[in-house]
Design goal:
The protein has 15 helices and 20 strands. The protein is of the alpha/beta class and about 475 residues long. The chain is globular, with a radius of gyration of 23 Å. It binds adenosine-5'-diphosphate.
């Protein structure tokens, strides 16, 4: 990779298996492009089933040793990895902007956010406690211990090339599991740079293995069919998540699935409008709308609808579209041409159904993968754009009359990841938060996720939680010990 001032020790064009940096047996590679410029950034190995099996083998052999390392010693290694990530945060952020496109202020934020999971689980691994239960008879005692699940497969997406990896690997390692990771083929360099730092931190051979591949179907089949892999942790689309769920049935793997969303962002008449406008801009346009917790539908109550739309439009028009490496940029490109095509067709079909474009509405002259920040009004909950995950910088605004209608609209989706609402009513906060069918609810707040809190969805948005002590539990099994013959 010919790139800028990124520390060369972090630019890896090989995958990492059993402590070795290696190429694909076939010699094939995947080309990685910068979405802002179309430039070729470099190539990484295009591995397949054979290398996946080698990686599983390595993780399986390393497990015996790693699960016996004390939680404190595992934590010290994770802490060293955290320190190295922090030391190289600028390099990691630049690399991520180059291959993923989002502006530097966001990639810097993601590197710190991703690192926070490593720091948190370096500490939290020591707090995996068992339990002793009240005895059922005088000659027996009942207790449970927590043990690592075993080898974990992690499949991660391109929208958070760093944090979706650390959010899985850090709790897995803290719990005593070993890992095979397949990052997205769109953003392998950020993933491999994390491996380079894990190696420098002294994480033992075989504990983390990373394969890069464009053969996701074949690699996914091997990871799900192999009975040595005891858990699959996946972040990505609902379509692929469902496929992996069914593929995991044969070996009855534990699953963590963090899938798509259709987040409603609801603003009641009594909301603090300044806070709601600022929150909506962040919830909609961060990462160019390409996060699973991005506001997908903005629901605004009648009484403040027009005022909100005017202020929101003014705020959206302040966004600066461009190459994420420019310090002033606040909105970068989307990931690829397929994303542009999908966003464009969703907007066109919404227009055909009566939605009005009041801002943006088409690609932006910054380049072929840039879409102008777009606002649609007169959208209805029945329109396709309100039912599908947009994953782009398009804000559909839907009007509602009262709380009951807002709730019915909000829950009218098979997804259940994040929801947001703005109100100053104390009673409504409890009533409405409890009635929303979502795994996470932002109340007068548009940024939900951090390492101390349980991130995850309900309904077709997935299962399992990442972050917090619950995130550690998801990599551990409970074993019940029944002790008898006590006199
Ligand atoms: P996105 O829309 O975010 O790209 P995907 O679900 O397509 O979501 O991709 C998320 C991750 O899943 C990526 O690493 C991708 O390579 C991988 N993936 C895609 N299809 C499959 C599959 N059939 N089996 C296993 N992994 C897959």
């Amino acid at each position: 990779m010919s790139s800028l001032s990124v520390n060369s020790s972090l630019i890896k064009d090989s995958a990492y298996i059993n402590g070795l940096w290696c190429q694909a047996e076939s010699g094939r590679t995947i080309k990685v492009f910068n979405p802002a410029t179309g430039d070729l950034l470099g190539q990484v190995p295009d591995m397949g089933p054979a290398e996946t099996l080698t990686a599983i083998e390595a993780a399986h052999s390393a497990l015996t040793h790693w699960r016996a390392v004390t939680p404190k010693a595992r934590g010290q290694l994770l802490r060293r990895w955290f320190d190295l990530i922090i030391e190289h945060q600028d390099d990691l952020a630049q690399l991520m902007t180059l291959e993923q496109g989002k502006p530097l202020f966001e990639t810097r934020g993601e590197v710190l956010y991703g690192a926070s999971y490593v720091e948190w689980y370096a500490e939290e691994g020591k707090r995996a406690y068992g339990k002793i239960f009240a005895a059922s008879s005088s000659d027996k005692r009942a207790l449970s211990i927590q043990q690592p699940i075993g080898v974990v497969a992690a499949i991660t997406p391109w929208n958070f090339p760093n944090a979706m990896i650390t959010r899985k690997i850090a709790p897995a390692l803290a719990a005593g599991c070993t890992v095979v990771v397949k990052p997205s083929e769109e953003t392998p360099f950020s993933a491999l740079a994390l491996m380079a730092l894990a190696e420098q931190a002294g994480i033992p051979v075989g504990v983390i293995n990373m394969i890069t591949s464009s053969q996701a179907v074949e690699v996914g089949a091997v990871l799900t069919q192999d009975s040595r892999v005891r858990k699959l942790s996946f972040t990505g689309s609902t379509r692929v998540g469902k496929l992996l769920y069914s593929q995991s049935a044969d070996t009855v793997k534990k699953l963590s699935l963090e899938l798509g969303g259709n987040a409603p962002f609801i603003i009641f008449d009594d909301a603090d409008l300044d806070a709601a406008v600022a929150g909506a801009v962040i919830a909609k346009f961060r990462n160019a709308g390409q996060t699973c917790v991005c506001a997908n539908r903005i629901l605004v109550q009648d009484g403040i609808h027009d005022e909100f739309v005017a202020r929101f439009k003014a705020a959206v028009e302040q966004l600066i579209v461009g190459n994420g490496l420019a310090p002033s940029t606040t909105l970068g490109p989307v990931i690829n041409q397929a994303a542009i095509d999908k966003i464009t067709s969703l907007v066109r079909r919404a227009q055909a159904q009566g939605a009005q474009v009041i801002s943006g509405g088409q690609t932006h002259n910054a380049g072929p993968l840039f879409f102008s920040p777009t606002i649609l009004t007169q959208v209805s909950q029945q329109m396709e754009i309100a039912q599908q995950e947009i994953f782009g910088p398009v804000a559909p605004i839907i009007r509602f009359k009262d709380e009951a209608e807002a709730l019915a609209m909000a829950n009218d989706t098979p997804y259940g990841l994040a929801a947001y609402f703005y109100t100053e009513s104390h009673s409504r906060i409890w009533r409405f938060a409890e009635a929303l069918e979502f795994g996470m609810v932002g109340i007068n707040e548009s940024i939900l996720s951090n390492e101390i809190a349980p991130f995850g969805g309900v309904k077709e948005s997935g299962q399992g939680r990442e972050g917090s002590s619950l995130g550690l539990d998801d990599y551990m099994e409970t074993k019940y010990l029944c002790m008898g013959g006590i006199r």
